[in-house]
Amino acid sequence: MPFDRYNRDIDYLRISLTDACNLRCVYCMPEHMTFRPRHELLSDDELRRLITLFGTLGFRKIRFTGGEPTLRPGLVDLVRHASATPGIAKVGLTTNGVLLDRLAQPLRDAGLQSVNVSIDSLDEGRFRQLTRWGNLRDVRAGLDAARAAGLRIKLNAVVCRGLTLDEDVTELARLTLGSDWQVRFIEQMPFGNNQSFQEKGMVTEDELLAVLNRVFGPLELVDQGKLDGEARLYRLPGGKGAVGFISPVSKPFCADCNRLRLTADGVLRLCLLRDSEVDLRPLLRGGADDEALSVAIRQAVFDKPWGHGLEQHLIPAARGMSEIGG
Ligand code: SAM
User: Fold this and answer.
1) For residue 232, what are the β-bridge partners?
2) Which site from 83, 98, 153, 221 is most exposed, i.e. has the minimal number of CB atoms within 10 Å?
């Protein structure tokens, strides 16, 4: 089992498959972005090798993300490989859902179990405003396909002060009345490339909870507030599903962090909100054997920082969210 120096069991790897995206969410990246050239990204073979190695080292869960992971041509095969990897019990995907319509069934057939779809509003106009390029109908079609394929679905929404309306929050939460989905609201995190926008735009869990309590009546805390992954869950009165809050800024959950992130260019990011990184690509491309790679990964796990430094105004500067993989 991979334990870090604080005795946390680090068994969850989030793999970014590309830094490119087919949307330009205002809180995530500027409209005009330059993405990494293909040769800087890990190849499918390099990724398969690392996935096998992480399974051997005791990692239990893999989530593919990005950028937008459905833009990666080899996604289905990588999911198939991860699902068949000894030790890996759970394989998930985080996506904007735009291309899920045609990919949901092949992904399910390849062993994908669950999908987190980012959707910030159910209003077409505001969805377009928040994503700059998005068409809500594509995401709805993707969700229908995911449901038909039997994938477990969670929705993620980033709330953006001045752009998101209370109505967006309540309509997303309302989806949990009739379905067993989780709808999770994520606090905006600041990164060097967009820091002041993200700090000004952040809406806290407490503010959102007040809105939902007012509209639906008191929400019921699920499981005494024990986190489900990163989310604190509540149920609307009479609700089948759950409303979750992922609140890394107002209620940090670093003590429960069990994850590492692998960027598309092969860097292990030890904390989402700190620039502590270990570059695996020179090892991979320099002929390192599995033992040398394992040593580097175990050391990286051990060196994982205790937590982020947002309260001390330490804002990560090296990469934005789309370059890390949320
Ligand atoms: N393209 C995929 C998607 O849309 O889900 C995967 C990558 S995206 C970077 C992962 C998640 O990060 C999305 O839910 C997105 O809304 C969220 N995100 C992006 N920038 C963020 C920020 N500054 N703070 C909080 N969440 C952010």
Assistant:
1) 245
2) 221
| Secondary structure element (H or E) that encloses residue 73, with its range | none
Burial class (CB in 10 A: 0-12, 13-18, 19+), 162: exposed
Profile the chain (326 residues) by mean pLDDT over runs of 10 residues.
94 98 96 95 98 98 98 98 98 98 98 98 98 98 98 97 96 96 96 87 97 98 96 98 98 97 98 97 98 98 96 92 90
Residue 197, pLDDT score: 86
Residue 304 contacts residue 260 (beta carbons within 8 Å): yes
Alpha helices in 150-204 (DSSP H): 166-178, 195-201
**Residue-level length of the chain:** 326
Ligand 1 centre to CA of 292 (Å) is 33
Separation of alpha carbons 294 and 56, rounded Å: 9
Instruction: Identify the pLDDT of residue 194.
Output: 84
Residues 82, 51 contacting (CB under 8 angstroms): yes
Q: Which of 121, 156, 184 to mutate to test the pocket of ligand 1 (most atoms within 8 A of CB)?
A: 156
Ligand 1 neighbourhood includes 65 CB (under 6 angstroms)? yes
Does the C-beta of 59 come closer than 6 Å to ligand 1?
A: no
